[in-house]
Amino acid sequence: MPMAHLLGKHAPPGACMQSCQSSSRLAGCRRPFRQVAGAAAAPPTTSVSHMSANMKQKMRSSMEENEQLKVLMAGFRGSNLDASDFASAGVRMQLVTDLQDQDLGAALPLTYDPDAINRYWNTRPTAVITRITQLLTIAGTFIGGLVSDLIAGCLKENEVKRAIELRDIVTSLGPAYIKLGQALSIRPDILSPAAMNELQKLCDKVPSFDNTVAMQVINDELGAPWYEIYADLTPEPIAAASLGQVYKGRMKTGEEVAVKVQRPGVLETVTVDLYIIRKLGLMLKRFPQVTTDVVALLDEWAARFFDELDYVKEGQNATLFAQQMAEDLPQVVVPKTYSQLTSRRVLTVSWLEGEKLSQSKADDVGDLVNIGVICYLKQLLDTGFFHAGKLVSSSVMWQPPFNTFSGTLQLLIA
Fold first, then answer.
1. What are 90-146's pLDDT values in tens digits?
2. Whole-number Å distance between alpha carbons of 339 and 6
3. DSSP tag of 43
4. What angle do CA 334, 171, 157 make, to 5 degrees?
5. DSSP conformational letter for 83
6. 18 membership: H or E segment, kind and range
């Protein structure tokens, strides 16, 4: 269904949010009834907006009384996140580059191919055993702590402590496990609220890597030192994520940009972890009690994960998404991609000022909801091309209104 049918063929930008004069938006928007001559006036009834306000108040009261629900909703809003942009001091991501094998990555596929990955790591048993040892060492302390809590009967008392440990362990295990942790962070049917809250910090609190290495990646990918490409670049990253870290820069023509640089060793680490997990999945197939096809699930997830490793594709997706939103939803802003300064491991996009949704004020919520709902309806009913960001803080930014300008919802395609 074209969005013109949702917004109105000739409706101006934002008309979907201005159609109701009532301050309560759609909830308070009522059409006047035609009075039938001679008919008695209908008795006054409770307005929709009044009923809605009562329902909201009852829900809030119920949430205040339920401690677990309060923790869960705070996590969904991101109010548990602090202002820091990196992981706790001392948390280090263990990557395959630590194995010091210069041949690693020489023939790995750039698109997901389980057979090619299997052939590659079958010839490197030492590296695989070393990685398995890393995984078991990192996870061993946590598992031991859980067993100890279970025996002592203090699982509930140590819930927050173990959740923090779980977050640090997932961070240490590397990109594949961080992505898994991020997916689990919005699954209250699987994890406790305390564990969800801690795993949500994986959205943007990940260790950074050495700046010298990052600058070398820029040199290798773009064919010149950073100072020949950009007029300025921050000496330290402003944020880090599972696959890379971001610097704020300025083009020689004056435009401010964000430069994302991929971590070294990501491809090697991701593929060896997929190789190990897939082997376990094939073993589970031997047991009839296991009805889930772990290998098929892993292959589907891995194929999408490999797409995220290609920053050229990420930039192209952002450009396409921006074009699709431009006509009906100019309030949705996607950073411009500088394709000439983008490669598989370096992405250059325009810099946007804003704040995380978790930092938004209550007064902004109505506008955010209106823009966000129409945006997702357009994706669902019109374009069929989806922004799949589901995290509290990493994929969506809100730019509040300044002076007479309308606020904009910024979608970071990542």
1. 566 777 754 444 455 558 899 999 999 999 999 999 999 999 998 888 888 888 888
2. 33
3. P
4. 115
5. S
6. helix 15-18
Helix (H) or strand (E) holding 5: helix 4-7
On whether the CB atoms of residues 181 and 168 are closer than 8 A, the answer is no
Partnered with residue 381 across adjacent β-strands are: none
Chain-centre distance for alpha carbon 355: 15
- Distance in angstroms (rounded) separating the CA atoms of residues 199 and 186: 9
* pLDDT tens digit sequence for 270-314: 999 999 999 999 999 888 888 888 899 999 989 988 999 999 999
- Tokens 């019109």: give the residue: 382
Torsion of the alpha carbons at 153, 159, 164 and 167, rounded to the nearest 10: 90
Q: Give the separation between CA 247 and CA 258, rounded to whole angstroms.
A: 6
C-alpha separations of 163 from 71, 126, 170 in Å:
13, 32, 11
d(CA 128, CA 125): 5
Distances (CA, A) of 361 to 79, 201, 364, 367, 401: 11, 20, 6, 11, 12
Q: Which residues contact 396 (CB under 8 A, 6 or more apart)?
A: 357, 389, 409, 410, 411, 412
N residues, the chain: 414
Choose among 215, 211, 202: nearest CA to 85.
202
Residues 289 and 79: their CA atoms lie apart, in Å, by 41
The answer to whether 315 and 339 are in contact (CB under 8 A) is yes
Separation CA 179–CA 258 (nearest Å) = 22
